[in-house]
Every structure is written in structure tokens, then in C-alpha cells.
Write a structure and sequence with these properties.
Layout lengths: L1 E5 L11 H15 L3 E7 L2 H4 L5 E5 L2 E4 L7 E6 L2 H4 L6 E2 L2 E2 L3 H18 L6 E5 L5 H10 L9 E6 L7 E3 L19 E2 L2 E3 H8 L2 E4 L2 H6 L10 H6 L4 E3 L26 H16 L9 E5 L8 H11 L5 E5 L6 H11 L4 E4 L4 H10 L2 E4 L9 H7 L3 E5 L2 H6 L13 E3 L4 H16 L1 H13 L5 H15 L2
Parallel strand pairs: 1-2, 1-8, 2-5, 8-9, 9-13, 13-14, 15-16, 15-18, 16-17, 18-19, 19-20
Antiparallel strand pairs: 3-4, 4-5, 6-7, 10-12, 11-12
Helix pairs in contact: 4-5, 5-6, 9-12, 10-11, 10-15
Bound molecules: adenosine-5'-diphosphate (ADP).
Amino acid sequence: MKIAFCSSEVFPYAKTGGLADVCGALPLALAKLGHQISIFLPHYKCIQDQKLKLTKVNEGVFKIDRFPTQNVDVYFIRHDGFFNRPGLYGDDQGDYPDNLERFQFYCRSVLDSLKQLNIEADIIHCHDWQTALIPVYLKEKYQNDSFYSSMKTLLTVHNLAYQGIFPKEEYKKLGLRQDLFGLEGFEYFGKINLLKAGIIFSDAVNTVSPQYAKEIQTHTFGCGLEGVLRSHQDSVVGILNGLDHEFWNPEADKLIEKKYSREDFIKGKLENKKALEKNTGLPVDARVPLFGFVGRLAHQKGLDLILDSVEELMRLEAQFIIQGTGNGEYPAKLKEISKRFPRKFAIWLKFDEKMAHQIYAGSDFFLMPSLFEPCGLSQMISLRYGTIPIVFKTGGLVDTIISFDKNRKNGNGFMFEKYFKEDFVGIIKEAIQVFENKKIFGHLMEDGLKADFSWDKSAVKYVELYEHCLTL
Ligand code: ADP
């Protein structure tokens, strides 16, 4: 099959979160299965800064000269006015005010490029709201052209909380029929909702874990789109994200202090813990459990729960390291806590791939108290490094974590079921007890290291979904 893979983030070119990891790894897994993939992403400033070897293949379209994986081509859509900016979606002031025009331009350029470059895609695989105009334009503007008429679209929703909502006054910029701005189209509480239109216009919709696929059809998690999703119920499936096992691999990771395997992980992890403590200014002490966090500083990721629990947490014999970036009040609050508790609470408020790897490798536990979590990669990454996740029972965390049962001694993490600080602190205390039993804790770490979260199984499921789309 020929697949056009459209995303606003693709690792290693542009990343703010898990979307980039998925869109960097899934194409490689699909190519391994023999499919031909053409990836399209905007040519942001951070990509220009990478000084990649590119060839101009069309007006405003550049292609990577030699991509190391066979069957994969990477194309960048260039428009300096729109994309040569410090952020992907915004800056300290918030979202860029012209995001509608920026991603409309990207979506139309992708569709135009397919014909201009003679890429006869069977499937156009779109990801999140930034690409959601592609299925709409395809059906409304391109499908009468025989080049496009048999192309099918799949829209993957990585996080329903981000929908691409804009004032209705901007609708005319889209150049679409006025009657598409209605209940059965873009309209959402009087505004434009790009994701909603994408869901309606694409041939199939999926999300990134089976549990989240169920949750988003309910009022609690549907973010106002539950009705639209329920009316597409048959096509809303959940496919669990995978990990790039080569990139996230403690045996070969160049970004960590000491590489380690299942044979020497106790020693290896201790060395990484020591380096992490040193690098973040925490006292070096192997006996004290170290809890890491890497993620966007957002309400979704449980920052409020962590902040509310700080007084109790600081009474425990434990250390914490929080890495993340975000707007709003979280950075200042975290700085204040780290000043008050410099021996227990370290912060790293930067987007820094190297430090993230060091936290995955050097921590004993990984904190992931997400209020909701479409799939979550960090819990899988931490298991891959033998670091035990502590998670809330939601979304993809339910599909990947089995809570440790101290009687049967099975499970791969710790899960709390009620979103209260007492429950969160309680599960951390339970984890510390298990940490103190070196034999049991050693088995837990070893089981984590054995886990298989590679893309192999999920890539096959995507192929099945593509095949299904072709029958529609
Ligand atoms: P989400 O996509 O909701 O942000 P995921 O758990 O799916 O969350 O994926 C997060 C990805 O982003 C992981 O690869 C994580 O390591 C990475 N990440 C998040 N924040 C940072 C940061 N400040 N520095 C480096 N990597 C980060």
C-alpha cells in the first residue's frame, strides 16, 4: 500500500510530545511490513536549524535526500511566514493567532503535492486537528479529480482535548461551502472546530488505546464531541501506540550515564541514579527511592495533584525530579517548591531529550498521575528502562499497566483508582514499601525490562484498518 502520513510533529524533526514519537516510529514499522510511506510535515524553524540535506522537489516542498529506512520518504512543506518561528504552535504568549491559516496552508499543500509529485496514495493517514482539514478538502475540493478519487482517509485522534477551535468569523478563510458550518460540519458551540469536521469527513477514525476509544464516547471524556464520535461508533477503534524499541533501549542508549541490560540492571540503574542525583542537585543516596516525572506541565498530566500533595510527599523519605515545560503557573510553583525542599525536590524546566532519558533510566519510579491519558508513552518508556510507573486508572494507562498485587506478587506498576491526593500519596507509600524489599523490587524491575511495547503488533492493526478503509 502507498500511505501518505500527515502530522504536525515527527520525531526526530519536530517534537512537543508523544505525537512526534508515534509519527516517527509507526512509518518505520509500516515500511518494514513492505508499505511505501510518504511523510509530510511543516518545515519549522527547529527543522531549518537542523541543517538537513534537502532537495527542492516542488515549489515550497523539500525532501530529505537520503532517509535511512527503505520505503520511507520525508517531505517538508515550507512557508517561512507561517513556519519559521520559535514554536510549533505558539510561544510564551499562547497559541499563534494565525494557526488556522498555518495549518490550512499545510493541509492544502499536502493534497496539492500528492498530485504534483505523483504520489498515488491509497490512504492518507492524518493525525490530530492540525491535519483534520485534509479529509474535508479531499471530499469537497479534490475528489472530482480522478487522481484523488479513490484515496481514503484515516484520522487518528491522539488527544481529544486539542480540537483546533477558532472564531466563526474565520470560517470564510477556509474557502468552503457556508452550509458546512453547521451541526453536521464545523460548528461547535458557535465556533469552528477542525477536529470535529475531520471526524465527520474522514473514512475512519481511530484513537490510540482501546480504553480511550471507549472513554471518548462518554460525556466525561468526550470533550463535547462524544455525540459525533458515537455516531461514528463502528469506525472509532483503539489501537495501542507502540515504542521505537531501538531508540528507547537502555542497552544502547547514548544519552544515559551507563548502559545496562537485563543481566546487570541493578548496578546499571544505580549508576544512572547517582548521575541523575548529581546532575539535578539532589543528595546521592541509593537507599532513598527516586520518583521521576517527564511530561508537559499541564492539568492533564496531574500537575495539580502533585502540587496539592507536596506537603505530604515532602514528609516521606523520598526524592522527586520533575522535568517539563508549559505555560501558566506551574513553572513558578515548581520553582518555589524546589527552593523550599532542595534536598528532596529537583526540577528541570526544559525540553531536553537527554535529561528525559536520564530520568527514565535513573529513577526508581515514574510518576504519571494523568487525569486522562489517551495512550501515554512515558509509562511504557519507563518500564523499558526498568523504572516502575505509578499511574491513575485511566485511558491507555489501563491498557498497559497492571497494578502490583502484593499477595500474588504480580503486576508491572502501581495504579490508584480515585483521583484524590490521599489515594495518590497512599499509592506512593505502598510503592516505597515494595522498594524496601529488594528481592521483590528487583523482580518488578526485571519484569518491566522484559516488556514488549514495540510497534510490531500495532502496525499490523493499522494495516488492517487501512485495508478496511479501502473497502469503504
Ligand atoms: P503526551 O503526548 O500527552 O505529551 P506521552 O506520554 O504520550 O504524552 O509522550 C510524551 C513524550 O514527550 C515522551 O517521549 C516524553 O519523554 C516526551 N517529553 C515530554 N516532555 C518532555 C521534556 N520536557 N523534555 C523531553 N522530552 C519530553
